[in-house]
Amino acid sequence: MKALHDPDSRLSDGLVAIRAQFKVPAAFPPEVEAAAAQAAQRQPGADHVDRTAMPFVTLDPASSTDLDQAFTIEAAGPDLLLHYAIADVAFFVSDGDPVDREAWARGETIYLPDGKAGLYPRVLSEGAASLLPDGPRPAVIFTTSIAPDGSVKLQGVERAVIRSRAKLAYETATDADLPAGFADLAARIAAAEQRRGAARVDPPEQEVERDADGHYTLRLRPLEQTEIRNAALSLASNLAVADALYAAKTGLFRVMAGPDDAAVVRLRHTAQAFGLDWPAAMDLKQFEAGLDQTKPAEAAFMLAVRRAGNGASYVPYQEGVRPWHAAMAATYCHSTAPLRRLADRYVNRAALEVANGRTVPPEVEAAFHQLGPVMGKAEARGSQIDRAVIDLAETAILAGQEGKSFPAVVIDVGDSGTRFQLCDLPVVARTTARGVAPGDKITVRLVSVDPIRRELAFARIA
């Protein structure tokens, strides 16, 4: 969500309050900035091979400057070889140094509509470590083969120096700008997902805008085609790295159970609220596969599916236990965003050793057993912040509409009241309505809007 127009400062003031409530750091301690500035002066040595002749490019939102990934693609018979260069954060950050200690305290970058609190100081994350096209950069290159059926295999990992040819943007990149094979590679990965029964949901972004009458409305921005295809590159690399680490009996994996039966029932009521036809004989995965993110009701339902999951977490390798990510329908890990996630730095270090027949260092193995709680805490705070921002947006959208009635559908009934989904807006709220059951259609009146507390009060009137 981002605020596009905010002349009355409802959103900006609310975001200041959210930052204070969740103690979002405004800056790095001086000793961390100093250590990062010193680290930024390091120059790659003999352990970084020269790959500056390879035609790497980056593809991100136009405004992004913390660029984790660059890529190029080449044909290898019927296979495609994806060379995925990842920012070599471990080259700049050493175990136990001030930058490392601060990163462990933060866990991940926090994003808000009015800016971010980075995992690393900008001199690294938007400078020396970022794969910007203004000079050579150290990187870790993952080379993955993608077969015609979409199956993936890690072919090699190396430390290298690369030079990005272009900083491409989702909004403007054309097929001519992108490496040959980009669309084909994405199609292969998508086909493999469908065969596996994956239920990965990529909902559109939520944006809040103010109309000419002074009312706030929620807009869902569909993902660009280049954005969807770009996600397939990360997915291919992460799947290949996960398989290699699991085979080597090491690693840190991303696991997630799918929505439970109760959540699926609630989602059916949500689909009903949005007027979507979900046949009783069709399961959630089949229904998701037919959703169109460019249609507002279906896009809003995709957001509801994401919120309905049981939550993902990180687990280290355990003998005899196959880590599983239900949405991916595969063993999966995070390795492609080390500038934004602490865990990725350690996964990359392990992959570099495993792919080259070396033993994973004890300090990396130890980190795998410590990162789960650290990342869980960081993600929980991030989720709470996201929820607070959504609550703020909902109050902004509905401000001035007190007394208005809205059609809704009951999603859940519990001790804390009745939870319902508005039919015309992607807003979920509660009321004290009694004598209702999930799936019932009701009419509610907006009683009050409190932007400071980010609270809405509704009363059932029919």
Question: Keywords, please?
Answer:
single chain, about 450 residues, alpha+beta, OB fold (Dihydrolipoamide Acetyltransferase, E2P), five-stranded mixed β-sheet, 18 strands, about 35% helix, globular
Describe the fold and architecture:
The protein is of the alpha+beta class. The chain is built from 12 helices and 18 strands. The strands form 6 sheets. A 5-stranded mixed β-sheet has the order 1-8-7-4-3. Strands 16-15-14-17-18 form a 5-stranded antiparallel β-sheet. Helix 1 (10-21) runs antiparallel to helix 12 (362-398) and helix 6 (182-196) packs across helix 7. The longest helix is centred in the last third of the chain and has 37 residues, at 362-398. The model has no long low-confidence stretch (mean pLDDT 91).
Largest sheet: 5 strands, mixed
Give the strand order, joined by hyphens, for the main sheet. Answer: 1-8-7-4-3
Continuous helix count: 12
Report the radius of gyration as a whole number of Å. Answer: 23 Å
Our count of domains comes out at 2
Segments where pLDDT lies below 50 for 5+ residues? Answer: none
Q: How much strand content do the residues show?
A: 15-25%
- Helix vs. strand class: alpha+beta
Shape: globular
Nearest-integer average pLDDT: 91
What string gives the helices and strands in order?
HHEEEEHHEEHEEEHEEHEHHHEHHEEEEE
- Helix proportion of residues, in percent? 25-40%
Q: How many β strands by DSSP?
A: 18
Distance between the first and last residues' Cα: 32 Å
